[in-house]
Amino acid sequence: MCRLSNILISLLNSCTLIIGLIAVLGAVHIRDHGGTDCQKVLQDPALIVGIFFIIVSLFGLIGSCCRLNSILFLYLIVMFLLILGLMAFTIFTLLVTNRGIGRVVSGTGFKEYKLGDYSHWLQNHVVNDENWIQIRSCLVDSPICPSLAEDYHEQEAEFIKQNLSPIQSGCCKPPSYCGFEFKNATFWIAPKTGPAVQDSDCTTWSNQQNILCYDCKSCKGGILANIRKEWRNFALFNSCAITVITIIYCIGCCAVRSNSSSYKYY
Prior knowledge:
Blueprint: H1 2-33, H2 37-41, H3 43-65, H4 69-96, E1 103-104, E2 111-112, H5 120-125, H6 129-141, H7 144-151, H8 156-159, H9 166-171, E3 181-184, E4 187-189, H10 200-204, H11 217-263
Antiparallel strand pairs: 1-2, 3-4
Helix pairs in contact: 1-3, 1-11, 3-4, 4-11
């Protein structure tokens, strides 16, 4: 049992060590060879997560291969704190994403999104002015809106039937209540008398392809709708990760107990 538990800990930590090395190498590659602003946003988190994985994996490998309970104890403490952290983050994720839903637009296949429909924490900490500069840069660099314009050029009847993603609906076109005339998916003409509704999103819209509705509240609402979906999926992933890490933690406890028992025979 002593050998089996130590072998399992060694194998599992070899896998996490490889994952950590890949994350660090990816972050270093972006740092050395440049990249888009969107890629640079991921640089520091990938580096931190990669280094964390490497350090924890080395603790597990050294402790299991050398049967050093002092190192394994440290490894188990880190794993226990990680389990608590993931549980807290999962609960927090569910709490801050409990609000927010797209509003169906009559006669269309897509929904539109309002910034005020989402939790104040998401509004104040995710799409605040500082973060929005980076998010906006990612949107401009992405092919989301240009590809939409290519697919629906002078095809309004087909466009309004599409189930657009939250980002496409909120950022690539003006809100439907503005009453703009369709030319293509990212080119809309305002009425001569002005927008049907005097809303800031209607006046913010621009047909310049690097502006569009990237500064609209509807775009921020679309981003939060996308984040809400991803965070809820991530909460499910976290639940699975907590289960796996708990199993690893239990195996580590078995390894420590087995190592202690084996020393008594010497």
